[in-house]
Write a structure and sequence with these properties.
Blueprint lengths: L3 E4 L14 E10 L8 H23 L4 H13 L20 E7 L4 E8 L5 H11 L4 E3 H10 L13 H20 L11 H10 L2 E2 L2 E6 L5 E7 L20 E3 L3 E7 L1 H6 L2 H12 L3 H15 L3 E7 L4 E2 L6 E8 L3 E7 L4
Parallel strand pairs: 4-5
Antiparallel strand pairs: 1-14, 2-6, 2-7, 2-13, 3-4, 3-8, 7-8, 9-10, 10-11, 11-12, 13-14
Helix pairs in contact: 1-2, 2-3, 5-6, 8-9
This protein binds aspartic acid.
Aspartic acid binds next to strand 10.
Length: 345
Amino acid sequence: MRLFILTIFTIMSFSGQAQDKVVLVIHGGAGTILKKNMTEEKEDAYEAKLKEALLAGYEALQAGKTSVEAVQAAINVMEDSPLFNAGKGAVYTNAETQEMDASIMRGQDKEAGAVAGVSTIKNPIDAAIAVMEKSDHVMLTGEGAEEFTEKQRVTIVDTSYFKSDVRLKQLKRVQDHEKAVLDHDGDDSGEFDGSENEFNVDYIEDKKFGTVGAVALDSSGNIAAGTSTGGMTNKRYNRVGDSPIIGAGTYANELVGVSCTGHGEYFIRNVVAYDVAALMEYSNMTLEEATEKVIAKQTEIGGKGGLIALDKDGNVSLPFNTAGMYRGYITESGEIVIEIYEAGI
Ligand code: ASP
């Protein structure tokens, strides 16, 4: 296991003190992320981008900005990078387009915003925030979401912005596999048969869930959580996962904020993000107890993935049931921890 602890701002020494509280935690997706498949170069690139995202959010918090602004700053960095399945790096749908989903929730007043199936918004988390702050709604989808957010000065780009050879190759690999699966089943009609396997193909081929997320705690003690994704490679029929669904992929209240990553269908069924908050509120569980229980429930039903959670006291928990999860956090005094492999921090 590689553990990175970088003291960026030497504001205070930790010796002999209780651990500094965490103010921002992020993830860049979970999945079959194995050290043996990783080059040092790639590993360094992920670490550098995660660090940049943490620092962007941290700087916002240091400047007295809100937890929503810190989540936005951190997620924007990852959305602008081709390394993650969100924004610039969003995966291809079956029709060789991008359909991106994002959501945000503000804990103190339980305001929330989300967009699903958007194809021209450079930073879908910005659109989710616009829905939360500027509309009477919680979720807008497709062209309607684009029309609304364009009026809110959210950056719209040409769809060519999202195109990349790497992601296209990934789609082709998945599609080849799918054809083989259909041939094997004796069904070459190419029509969706409603089976989960058809949606699962990309996970069989390339088990990485590159969604991004962030949870922040600001100087007023307010928590916000956000998630942004391109969803599943080769998805069809306007499939939407858990990421834009408040309670499933994202949730925040006065106690805790949660952002999830993994096989969305399972995260929707177990209402994962809200389940963490509910266990803390109704069963008085600690953050760690609640998050471990929720991931164990996911494992029971076969739902692969993980989550990041941050409570009002600055405790953090980052459990997952996959080989790895890109993740990191920064404390109040600027200590950064970034990890990729193995469970638990
Ligand atoms: N949860 C996302 C979805 O199912 C995928 C991911 O986390 O990478 O759309």
